[in-house]
Amino acid sequence: MPLDPLSLYIHIPFCKHKCIYCDFYSLPTVSLGKNYSTLRSQYLDALKTELLSYKKNLLIGREIKSIYLGGGTPSILETDEIKFILDSVRDICCVSSSAEVTIETNPGTADIEKLHGWLKTGVNRISIGIQSFNDDDLNFLSRIHNSDEASEIVTKAADAGFQNISIDLIFNLPGQSRDKWLSNLTKAADLPVHHISAYSLIVEENTELYRMVENNLVSIAGSEVDSDLYLETIRFLSKHDFVQYEVSNFAKKGFECVHNNSYWNYSDYLGLGCSSHSFINRCRSWNFRDIHNYLHAVKDTGKGTEGSELLTNAQQIEEYIMLRLRSGILDFSELINIFGVDIRSSLGNLVADFQKIGLIQPGNNRFTLTPKGFSLADEIVSRILAVIDLT
Amino acid sequence: MEKIRNFCIIAHIDHGKSTLADRLLERTGAITKREAKAQILDDMDLERERGITIKSHAIQMGYKAKDNNLYTLNLIDTPGHVDFSYEVSRSLAACEGALLVVDAAQGVEAQTISNLYLAIEAGLEIIPVVNKIDLPSAEVDRIKHQIIDLIGCKDEDIVLASAKANIGIDELLERIVEKIPPPVGEENKPLQALIFDSVFDPYRGAIAYIRIVNGSIKEKDKLRFFAHDKTYEAEEIGILGLKKIRTGSLTAGNVGYLISGIKDVHDTKVGDTITLVKGGAGEPLHGYKEVKPMVYSGLYPTDSEEFENLRDALEKFRLNDSALSYEPETSAALGFGFRCGFLGLLHMEIVQERLYREFKQSIITTLPNVEYIAYKRNGEKVIVDNPAMMPNVGDLDYIEEPYVKAQIVTPAEYVGNIMKLAMDKRGIYINTTYLDPTRADLQYEFPLSEIIFDFYDKLKSTTRGYASLDYEFIEYKESDLVKLDILLNSEPVDALSMISHRTKSYDWGRKMCTKLKDLIPRQMFEVSIQAAIGTKVISKSVVKALRKNVLAKCYGGDISRKRKLLEKQKEGKKRMKQVGNVEIPQEAFLAVLQIED
Q: Residues A104, A236: one domain?
């Protein structure tokens, strides 16, 4: 029996500028000064070394079904560097001919030339960090692009030949009215966009935004407004033929992100580069977050792994329920087939209660989340986990 | 017997009783300085922390007096808190004399007075001692006058001492020998031994501390206890030094211990009389009574799976504490637990804390209540020690509640504050007497229920800590009481019900609704909170429905982090108690205990 195909994540930890809300690991290139180019080439070499270290066992006989260049800002790299990465992957792994190959792009770091170049290297999906089509919002978020550049990059990508374009948008920004948000969505729907990730603004610790909120320089609207905007988003996008396939992800039919679906569908993925995460054979592992620690680790051991945890059966079941519900569905027969557990009896009246208040739609051996249910997905999951006994 | 002196020390908390006791023990050679550590007599950690003696003990000293005779001095320790006044009275009954110790700076306190009266009633010879005379703030003359007014002694009868600085100790020992009469009693009469205390030893069972009033007792004697029908054989008898000293027998007038294979302290009840099976006394000593709980509360394990362990812990606990009573009960909100009876709130806190410290039991307690008597229209009488047992409004004729007589001793300047507090607490004013121009002794009657909550704290804060309180049960009186229920989404939460005076119920209901609104987290649906008397809703509040609880982003494959967040949420939910479909955090049950009335 052939092994399940694998998804590959590659982290590029460089940015022109650190945005106030972002807590992904990245280094602003300005701060690196002269060291930037040396560090960059060391890093790219390390990525290749790390991948090679997996060749002998993990990668044998396993097809790669998706490659995702995330960041940071992968689009900050030169095209031949992208080519170097993807060529290395193709050299070392068996990449499926239909593999989805995504690059995360910041509108301020991409131009026509790069777009054409990426296509030539085999990139076939572009995920653009638009965040907003409104200059006030973009200023607030400290993005390096403006609203015109935001819409231009989408058109240019389509013109260059990208047939699978995704954009990120953020809602519940300070002062963002319902109308202002809807105009963002309208703009998105008018552009040649196939996939939208619409996130509610999260104030993460260790970000500039967090400090601003702590010092009362910014106030973020509460869960009422957040929830209204979220439900509005679901309603609007579904009207425009975007199907919600995860809490924050919406796609035209057939454009669901193969790579992201690996996360929600509990399939294996390998992460390369600093701060990346892997999930292989029910074992979760993570690489060093700091680039220097990562480089050292790769030099010493060939891998960048900082730690790992082998999941217990109970943890696997809990994760499975949580991840499937992020995709808005819980299928009890799947749980029986994969883990041999039937949780229905221990749920008691819970499912009926969820249904009564309009959070779910029951089906045959399964239920799906309504928009209101998506908005309370974590509540639903934790209530389910609290009543089922997996010990 | 002529050379025995049995005495105790009456003192307010912190007036130096324990230090003085240590000093007497040191001077007579019963202990060395090193052994004295701090305060030998209080050997439970908890007691030491709280500065109060909960369990009384006794210790024997040999003292060679100036008349060249060797005397046996038995110092019998007494509990210092109002919750334990019966135990105090039994300790007093084992003595012929008492040292009245008063702090030279603080003066006479209510507790001192009430225990003093008990001692005088018991016919004890009182030796007044002003302690801490070396303090810069000492007002020796003023305190002397207080004492003279109080007991009508002469100036020269008062011993001036400082236990800390070792002043006046010799004089005090001489005074004890001189003034305190030797025990009366006859060795030839049938045995009558008074149990003035008992403790539980995990290896030896119940150990009774006894005073031989008449007759004598020796090992192998077959013993009869008047409070129950069981007989036991005396296994070991001795006197109490710093450790037990086995002597094999005890005769009239002396004090010592008895071990007789009794498995728990319920068969060695304080106040009971021991005699011999053969040729024993026909009558017990005067003054035994069954100690009854005054305050009741539900004790529930925070984790419902701990129920059996809590039962074990209570069972063990009761071996050592005959005043604690418990019965299993069930609450719709809190599951399986116990309704426990305590002597008072302090006793309740001690039990709770010891359950936690010694038995690792984490528990939720429900609002404490007193025992009410409800009379139904059909003439039936219902004892209500749990609000859930209160008959329906329609069936009720009237309700009676226990009243206490309270004595508050305070600097005169706070009399106004105390009268206001007493009014808030439904106090009935009886009388005021002045101990001296600066110190008043106020007498009140209060419903016990008003005293058990925060009265003592309030009294302390309104008098900057200067007033002291003592009370005792007098009788049941009819009151306009109501049962106040708390409903969540129309479901009553039994563990939050309480019995309150009608005039106070509205305020209480409003405070409960406000507090619960803050403590109950938003849930998937709106939660309505109502306070109701019968079917009449008197106050309400609402916890709005939770609108959003979902993490927008599940980071680039970092599922571990997300899982840990959810595990936290899950654990939070597991700790919640469920009533109907509403989840109530445990803090909500605990917080109602802190609502101020």
A: yes
Same domain, A318 and A260: no
Interface of B with A in 496-525 (CB under 8 A): 524-525
At which of A264, A286, A304 does a domain end? A264
Task: Specify the higher pLDDT residue, B522 or B439.
Answer: B522
Q: CA of A71, closest CA in chain B: separation in Å?
A: 9
Q: What is the ipTM of this complex?
A: 0.88
pLDDT at B499 over 80: yes
CA distance A257 to chain B (A): 13
- Which domain, by its residues, includes A150? 6-264
A-contacting residues of B 143-162, CB under 8 Å?
none
Average pLDDT over residues A56-82: 93
Give the per-residue pLDDT at B51: 40
Same domain, yes or no, for A122 and A46? yes
B572 touches chain A (CB under 8 A): yes
Do A252 and A343 lie in one domain? The reply is no
Query: Percentage of residues in chain A with pLDDT exceeding 90?
Result: 89
Tally of structural domains, chain A:
2
Query: DSSP secondary structure string, B2-61?
Result: TTEEEEEEEE-TTSSHHHHHHHHHHHTTSS-HHHHSS-TT--SHHHHHHT---S--EEEE
User: Which of B548, B555, B558 is opposite residue A375, by nearest beta carbon?
Assistant: B548
Q: How far apart are CA A112 and CA B469, in angstroms?
A: 88
Q: What is the CATH number of the domain that holds A181?
A: 3.20.20.70
Residue ending a domain, choose from A249, A264, A279: A264
Instruction: Say if A284 falls within a structural domain.
Output: no
Classify residue A294: in a domain, yes or no.
Answer: no
Q: Is B526 on the interface with A (CB under 8 A)?
A: no
Binned at pLDDT 50, 70 and 90, residue B590 comes out as: confident
**Nearest-neighbour CA in chain A from B555: distance (Å):** 9
User: What whole-number distance in Å separates Cα of residue B206 and Cα of residue B263?
Assistant: 6
Residues A73 and A168 in one domain: yes
For residue A374, the domain's CATH number is 1.10.10.920
**Low-confidence winner among A308-322, B199-213, B418-432 (lowest mean pLDDT):** B199-213
Q: Using alpha carbons only, what angle is made at residue B430 by residues B471 and B468, rounded to the nearest 5 degrees?
A: 40
Interface check B558 vs A, CB under 8 A: yes
> Using the beta-carbon criterion (under 8 Å), do A247 and B548 form an inter-chain contact?
no
- Quote the pLDDT of residue B436: 80
Do A259 and A326 fall into the same domain? no
Mean pLDDT (chain B) is: 87
Chain A: residue whose CA lies nearest to B567: A382
Closest-CA residue in chain B for A9? B556
Q: Flag whether residue B569 sits within 8 Å of chain A, measured between CB atoms.
A: yes
| Preferred mutation among B524, B546, B548 to probe A, highest tally of A CBs within 10 A | B548
**Per-residue model confidence as pLDDT tens digits over B183-230:** 988 999 999 999 988 888 888 888 999 999 999 999 999 999 998 888
Indicate the residue of B546, B559, B563 with minimum beta-carbon distance to A379. B546
Which ranges of chain A would DSSP assign to H, the alpha helix? 29-32, 35-53, 79-92, 112-121, 135-141, 147-160, 178-190, 208-214, 223-239, 258-264, 291-301, 313-326, 332-339, 344-347, 350-356, 371-375, 377-387
Position A279 in a domain: no
pTM of the model: 0.73
Least confident residue range of A80-84, B78-82, B340-344, B526-530: B78-82
Helices within B63-125 (DSSP H only): 85-93, 110-121
Residue A251 lies in a domain: yes
